[in-house]
Amino acid sequence: MARSDTRFREAYNRLLDYCATLGPDAAVPAESKLGEIANVSRTVVRRCLSRMEDKALIRWDGREKRLLRAPNDRDRMAQPDQAGASDDLEQRFLEWILKFDVPANTTLSVAELSRNFGVPQHELKEFLAGLSRFGLVTRRKQGGWMLLGFTRSFAVELSDFRTVLELNAISHAVEAPVDHPFWGRLEESRAAHLALLERIDTDFHEFSKLDEAFHMAINSVVKNRFVAEFQKVISLIFHYHYLWDKTHEKIRNGAAIEEHLAIIDALEARDEAAALAATRRHLKTSKTTLLSSLRYHDLV
Questions:
Q1: SUPFAM superfamilies this protein is in (predicted)?
Q2: On the chain, which terminus has fewer CB atoms closer than 10 Å, C or N?
Q3: How far is Cα 69 from Cα 87, in angstroms, rounded to an integer?
Q4: Which residues does 258 contact at the CB level (< 8 Å), separation at least 6?
């Protein structure tokens, strides 16, 4: 979890504690005073106030703020050690789309999503603006946002871009120094792949997590903020689409493990040509699987 989000959560809970000392319909102090109480900037205070307004804790009209009700335990925000990875807004949003099969061209209600995900509306709007770079959402001419969806053309473009990123990562990995943490992760990954291969008849469904960890290890060699941002989205999309299509899952996952091991062999041998060739074969298979999952999902 980002430090800014942790700070926001801590400040929000401190302000809840303060509001609990106020009486019904009490005036809430100015933003500068609240900033002193929570030890944060006015920007963070405004985020807190926006959430309080969304939760019907306060009435906020310009500079006037009134407490509508006393805060309770359900109003408090979970701290990072309690929240875990599920509190990453990007991950939760993609899970919502993929798990509930939200169709393309769906109008997105910022107010409703704000309530569902427990974030202020202004924060959700900023998030959607950022997500529009991936081509998943777009601004509507009449205002608001619309989901463009996971279409076949989107899947093809996503797979092609993934290939560009991962082939670049493979070339970096081959040149990584011997003391780079990547080699330790690769060794652990080999052991995990071999262990799962031995249990493939019963535990083939565990492959999706192994696949995610494997590709994250390879891409970790490239220190590029843009690559990291796109890889997170790519990983989630591939992960959830794979979960849709259960046909021949054991055979498909066993074959993917073998493809991963071929990449690992080539990387450990520092054979760039072989590693690139093995990666191209694997990503071609992944692309086929992704497109098959879309066809399968259209039928169910």
A1: GntR ligand-binding domain-like, Winged helix' DNA-binding domain
A2: C
A3: 26
A4: 197
For 133, 229, 232, 275, the CA distances from 125, given in Å and listed in that order, are 13, 18, 20, 41
Residue of 41, 76, 43 whose CA lies nearest to 57: 76
- Was domain 152-294 assigned CATH 1.20.120.530? yes
- Structure tokens that stand for 63 in this block: 């500079």
| pTM exceeds 0.70 | no
Query: Which of the four pLDDT bands, split at 50, 70 and 90, describes residue 204?
Result: confident
CATH fold label, 6-75: Arc Repressor Mutant, subunit A (1.10.10)
Please give the class, per CATH, of domain 89-147. Answer: mainly alpha
Closest CA to 124 of 135, 148, 102, 108: 108
What are the sequence ranges of the domains in the chain? 6-75, 89-147, 152-294
Which tens digits make up the pLDDT trace of 7-58?
Answer: 788 899 999 999 998 988 899 999 999 999 988 888 889 999 999 999 999 9
DSSP state for residue 28 in the 8-state scheme: P
How many angstroms separate the Cα of 150 from the Cα of each of 234, 237, 286? 12, 9, 16
